[in-house]
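Can you give me the bound-state structure? Components:
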Amino acid sequence: MPLLSAAGLINGPLGPIDVAVDASECVAVQGPSGSGKTLLLRALADLDPAAGDVRLEGVSRAAIPGPEWRRRVGYVPAEPGWWSDDPAAHLADVSAALVEFSRLGLEDAVLRRPVAQLSTGERQRLALIRALQRDPRVLLLDEPTAALDPEATRAVERLIAERQATGTSVLWVTHDRSQTERVASRVVSLRGGRLES
Amino acid sequence: MHVMLAVDVTTIIPIGAGDIAIAAALLLVHGGLSLALGLGVGRQVLVAAARMVIQLLAVGFVLVALFERMSPWLTGVTALVMILFAGREVSARQDRRLAGPWAYALGTGAMLFAAFAVTLLALTTAVRPQPWYDARYAIPLLGMVLGNTLNGISLGLHALTVGLVRERSSVEALLCLGATRWEATRPVVVDALRTGLMPIVNAMAATGLVALPGMITGQILAGAEPLMAVRYQMLIMFLIAGGTALGATAAVFGGVLRLTDGRHRLRLDRLTPSRAASPR
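Here's the bound-state model for the whole set.
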């Protein structure tokens, strides 16, 4: 049984599509801009009122309250939002986050600067750590390394691989074919809101 | 507090149509300014003044009929019509309204709840006219409460919709981490309620120092004792403050319920597009 599955998923111009990801599996999502990649992740994260049968470990999404679903199915958008200008306010455990900071090449000083003054890459990594601290069963990542240098990109890939090893499933939107080869065991391609065979 | 209207009608100085015409002549100043400076508002001033005269005359006749008949039904229907107009005004003041009938229903519902609650409280505890639905008291009280509650509700709703659109990514960031719709929208809700309540807070602080309210002025001109007029003003300010708080809270929380759903998703698709960019 897949960890996360969606059948007949429709979100605006996206779908209907079927998609599934097993435990510890990473599926890359590819497609040109406007093909529906972000709509797919938002529909799976239950941020948009999408139609279709979505299940987590066989349990229908309708049986799981929205907030609980989103705790289990974590979504990191390409442009994350910030409700406070204090980076520490976004972290469930600041001292644990510092360990991840050093692994991802983030300096501790990032915590002392307003979010608005962080670079795009720093914000992307902070958002990733913020999501990982909630221990989701499934991670939906929308170009999480788009603004990172190769070294930081590899660090993020290693961190995600470790989560996969503990059973977390990943849907990873990326335009980088070499990254797809490094992180994913399977590729899902979208075009015009439909899956490409 | 049980206050009584202490008006000695023999002290009212009657004014006639000629007296009003002298005051209306001041509009010539508007016209002159408009012409001299090319303001182009001469026609608008004329239309606004004509509307005011017609509307006030109509209200005067309606009030005369209401006071003579002393009917609870007639008073109730008049109050309902006032609230329906106020609800329409709330809806019209929004840049991005709730789609469908919700914009009207939410503003009107919040107004109905707040204005009726505080007006009934005043009629049955403080003012206590005989009978309690006496239109001479009920309609002016409701009118003053409505006019100010309307402001608080429309400001609160406007701040809510603008705030949710502006803060969409931060609200959704909280939702993504498992927050409920109430937790995720809390900063926007707090801001909307502050915005809705600020005018009445400012008005209470300034009343008597910066501005002598129309109600005091009216009662004094009608022959009331200044201290009794002041008591009435205090009563009405508290009613307005209570009504605004109730109305703005009901409208903002109702707005959150409509702009989210049972799955705790943000539903900005339930807002109409912004009118700011559209040609007028």
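A couple of observations. Strands of chain A lie at 4-11, 14-21, 26-30, 51-56, 59-60, 73-76, 138-142, 169-173, 186-191, 194-195. Chain A has a mean pLDDT of 95.
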